From TrEMBL:
Protein name listed in UniProt: Uncharacterized protein
Organism: Halorientalis pallida
Pfam families: DUF5812
Chain positions covered by the region annotation Disordered: 67-100
Amino acid sequence: MKDATFLVTAADDESAVLQDVTDSQVHTLSTNPGVEVGETVVATIEPEPPMEVVWQVVEITDQRTIPVERSPEPPTQQTREIAADQPVGEITRQERAGEGELHVITVPDGEADDAAEDVLDDAETLARAARLGVDRVEIRADGQALSVRYLP
């Protein structure tokens, strides 16, 4: 048996695939318990006998969608200062007061919009949000600064 938080990476009417957001292990379910791609579930799963190559859900204690959105707002002054002080390609992670994290990435000038789209499309953004236990993700980009705000 395994208790974990999972990201649903594939789902159809008959089965689903869950990725553990902590250890990245992938578990194929023999049936779909009513989950959709992109959802986060906190569940207990167990291998299905006799071969134990697929899994079944014992219990789902939480099931939700974490919105990941591009904000029309530019990065904050603090974000711009952090981005200006680090080389292109570097990331700074800061805990937020209360819950969540702020990630500041310095990108080549003029590539902030493309980088923001990459973050929007990256399943790891959702997995990280689920690991952090946040309710939403906000992405801001302008110039060389890209901020990913994991928010309560």
